[in-house]
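Researcher: I need the complex structure. Ligand is NAI. Inputs:
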Amino acid sequence: MAQSVLLTGAAGRVGEAILGDLADEHEWRLLDRDPPTGEQPGEFVVADITDGDAVREAMGGIDAVIHLAGDPRPEAPWDSVLTNNIDGTRTVFEAAVDAGVEKVAFASSNHAVGAYETDERTPEMYRADDEYRLDGTELPRPGNLYGVSKAAGETLGRYYHDEHDLSVVCVRIGNLTEGHPPIDYERGQAMWLSYRDCAHLFDRCIRADYGYEIVYGISDNDRKYYSIERAREVLGYEPRDNSARHE
Ligand SMILES: NC(=O)C1=CN([C@@H]2O[C@H](COP(=O)(O)OP(=O)(O)OC[C@H]3O[C@@H](n4cnc5c(N)ncnc54)[C@H](O)[C@@H]3O)[C@@H](O)[C@H]2O)C=CC1
Ligand SMILES: O=C1O[C@H](COP(=O)(O)O)[C@@H](O)[C@H](O)[C@H]1O
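Model: Output:
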């Protein structure tokens, strides 16, 4: 069934992947601090996610939120991730609860667990014959402040689920690229997320029933060190792409 979905960070790359396949599948309200370029599949709200009043207004009549807005740079400075990724994410969760939204899918990142990629494990863990897997039950282990901000977003989600009964899924997105996986980059190939698998995964986040979940958002790559079993089980994720087909 089509749902009313608020998509924050709609003008970015992940937003482009989602809307590319799902424009006609749901009723969209799009939010970004950058104004839209070109025609959009729904109402577009130009606002900053740290503006509580604007975010609360954008939540009216919404069933589900896909929260992408934030600073996506692994090297982003603390001031920026504190404002955009931590404070902004808290504002989105708070407004969702106030508005009686049912579920929020939060764009977390591989960088929330980047420090598991130790010198001892790499580069072997990036290869198809290596069986090391992270599955979402492990503690966060960020390798940079951007990763810290994503771990904080996951923890905010846990809090808003436990204290306010909001359904929350945190998707630790790998490396989204259009058309083909990153070239000459084993790590990127191991965590590749194709555009169509990205759209399908967030569609499942809108449609599935869950309480609080952390899942990995990668395609079904032969090379992988993130398990996608939880996403399959809980969300019904059925990825179609595999970076090995492009090697
Ligand atoms: N692209 C990737 O491979 C990955 C992305 N992610 C996460 O997914 C989300 C989206 O990433 P991308 O689309 O790649 O980034 P992007 O930079 O292309 O898009 C982010 C969008 O959010 C908007 N934005 C940023 N701060 C904002 C604020 N304070 N208020 C309102 N809008 C704001 C920007 O204007 C931009 O349109 C980010 O949270 C990022 O951390 C996580 C892992 C991998
Ligand atoms: O969280 C993110 O991760 C991807 C992949 O990380 P990288 O270190 O291999 O580049 C990154 O491209 C994206 O910008 C970021 O938001």
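Model: Summary of the prediction. The chain has seven helices and nine strands.
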